[in-house]
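Lest this sound abstract, we let one protein speak, letters for residues, whole numbers for local backbone shapes, and leave readers to judge:
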Amino acid sequence: MEDLVLKKVSIEYGDDIFSYKNEFIYNDESMDGTGFLRSANSPNEYIEKSLLNETKEVDGRVVTSTQLLAIRKSDNRIVGMIQIRHFLNDYLLQYGGHIGYSVRKSERNKGYAKEELRQALIYCKEILRINRVLLTCDNDNFASQKTILSQGGKIENEVLIEDENCIIERYWIDL
């Protein structure tokens, strides 16, 4: 795996952000850890909302959060995205957790998710002063389970999201 750096969203990556979005849409995949990306009409709109969401709730949908890009240093390309929620509301405590993340399909199975999460946990501890992080994933998402476990995740329980007929696993990581 090549070196990654986590960076806040910025216009410098506008085209690549939308390339990332289009890859997920083309593959009909969930855009975990991307915040407002699916509904954004332009890179500027996405970046503006994401940066505003660091200091206040936007659209009443989510808690304050930090949106980060996982950039491969060798070519300055986005390989993943990660959203760190600053605190948990009732929904996030039950189903969503502190961190959502994804890796574009063309870059999977290279260790990027593990490195994204490792760096995000450092951000949680050092910048946001979060001591205990909740992560969740679908119970059939073996890649995410492996990633969470690699960073010290301890499963607490499973919960059913009835509307989606989906079982979510809830993991805690002590920092």
Observations:
- The radius of gyration is 15 Å.
